[in-house]
Amino acid sequence: MQTLIFRTVAPFLSALMVVFSIFVLLRGHNEPGGGFIGGLIAASALAIYGIACGVTPVRRAIYFHPMNIASFGVMLGGAAGMISIFFGVPFMTGLWVYPNILGVEVALSTVLFFDIGVYFAVVGTITSVALALEERDEI
Amino acid sequence: MAAPSGAAVDISQAMVVAEAPLADWLVIAPVAYCLMAGAGLMMLRKYVKLQPRLAVFGLLALVAMTAGLLVHVLSGGTVTVTMGRWLPPFGISFSVDILGAILAFTASLVALACGLYAAQDVDKTGRRYGFYPLLFLMMAGVIGAFVTGDIFNLYVWFEVLLIASFGLQILGSERQQLDGATKYALLNLVATTIFLIATGFLYGIFGTLNMADIALQAREMGATAPLYTLAALYLLAFGMKAAAFPVAFWLPASYHTPKVVVSALFAGLLTKVGIYALLRTMIMLFPEQRDELATLIAIVAVVTMILGTLGALAQTDYRRLLGYLVVSGIGVMLAGIALATPLGLSGSIFYALHSIIVMTALYMAAGMAARIGRSFSIAQLGGIYRSHVLFAAISLVLFLSVSGLPPFSGFWPKAVLVKASLDAGIWWLAASILVTGFLTTIAVGRVWAHAYWKPADTTPPESPMMIPTATLRPSATYLPLIGLVALTAVFGLYPEPLLVLTERSAEQLLDPGSYIQSVFPEAAQ
Amino acid sequence: MEPILAVFVGALFTVAIYLMMSRHTIRILMGVMIFGNAVNLLIFTAGRLTRDVPPIIPAALDVPEIATANPLPQALILTAIVISFSFFAFLLVLGFRAYQELDTDDSREMRLAEPKDDPLPPLGY
Description:
By secondary structure, chain A is mainly α. Chain A has one domain (4-138). Chain A contains 5 helices and 4 strands. The longest helix of chain C has 32 residues, at 71-102.
């Protein structure tokens, strides 16, 4: 897909989509959104970047191998579930802390970290499939 | 909900308020650990030398965890843990009774043996491709299926083990593997989709997915038409997963194509997950409906075991022959489900444990025979007895065990099943179990006579087969095989403790009172 | 609404099973995909239909005000969609690779793992 307009717009579009995906991820706890859909948005951002500029720039941009990102997500999700072992409650119980950061009460929870884990797992797996398919096209 | 930190809400209506004892984490630990260990190994997959060592230690830890779980369940009865404190049936529960715990333990033993064997069998490309991460992912699926108490969650674990098995199946990407994998993947996907159809209906009827809740409600509803539909659908879906007769053909078409260690894992574990799910649904959830289907299951069992051995008799390839023997073993296990007496079920569970160990060991033996003789064809193999006496002796033990001859572990479950079917007055079931044993003896006897006993054929084989060129390092490759053979010999000579365990788990299946009580402590009072 | 959807589910199953009985891998794959979608619709229908009431609890309350749509079947379907999507992606790649390597997408000609001219097992000793 070597059109000038698309190639010029794609990096901005991808950046915007990644930001939006993080917004969707963080919004997800009380309103529609969440790690899965956020991960899909981020993965499609990377896919668009790959279609426009080729697979190598994408691999360079995300630095880590997509499968490693996915594995990191699984680890993070598992670890977030495991935290409850220290509080005597069953696996995956939501635990909350409300630290005061810069005068704003921020609600942090294990659920959030689980969701971030899901985000990474989805980004990693979908990106690795998408990049593999795009690489096939180029040959 | 990000409720304000000060809000006081009575949560005992929706959540478990009792503190979770640390020992109950043993229920979650094997599954969560497998997933995380798999992910960790995935990140380290560049370090191909380190992989086997890490994986073997990881699998040792897994064996320790499942052993701890078994001890915990034996001492404290059925254990239930509900994710995130939501009261069952709203949260997803993991409920482990003796059946689940003992199967999980045996499965992790077999995984350890395969992990050891794979250190020799899987080359660097295979490791880089992710053999060990996929092994852990598959174990997460297998153990998850054994411990879960939620039927949709069971479906999810089936899919987890299935996707991992797809990855393992095409490890190496040879043409034969692609052919086998296509059939394996498509037919298994259809089977799990039928499972999902049944679960969709089940949710429509019961409005719950918790197995204990379903067991309670199914007993109240009694013999109604929708439940017969459900039972029949589950029989079809899990029969297909377990490779029972009319829907078994994906197994002999694909089990000989992947690497030997992968075949060994599949033969040991995957079909038994299907048998486990059949035990759960047919015996625990829908006993009345099963009574109605009993004759059908018995006929399927007979046809499966006889046709399986006849298929084995027609094979030249060592691994394809073993694939048919897996099918015939499934028939023997189905016989116990058809009887559904405590004795029959105990025989089925014992046979499942025996089959997990022996089928894995047999595939490993096939792989080693092929390394010695550079072929999988029993017509081209020969003279193994002269060149490798110890290996020949080990193989002979396995052959006797798989045929159900004393003094090895295959004898007892078959004896128990024959007695159970004679007690129930179904003589033809007993007769076909005995005939199956006889035919299996002929099939493996021929392998013994040709591949091991007859002198080696000096003419070079026509078609060089894809066999790893690594030389046979006795210590590393023999160790897992000897371990598994020792298990089958020990439980053949001293079956009493295992028989007691399987009888207890059969009783728990037939009377799920303790299972239900562990999920709903107040409902039983 | 439920009867209409039930009929529609039945139609989808018919199409899927017809396609799956084909000999060509690509048609079987399409059949499998439609099969999966039919099941999703089945779960959706089995969970009973409530229109226009999303299961979202207003910020000030602990329980929803009125009866809402059942969220559980939707969660189940989401899980099933994710799984069937990843399986379909895998199978598509597998089918394509098999077509490249075996030069056929006709399942009757895929006899590499079980060759037609398989020799008889040794009959004597």
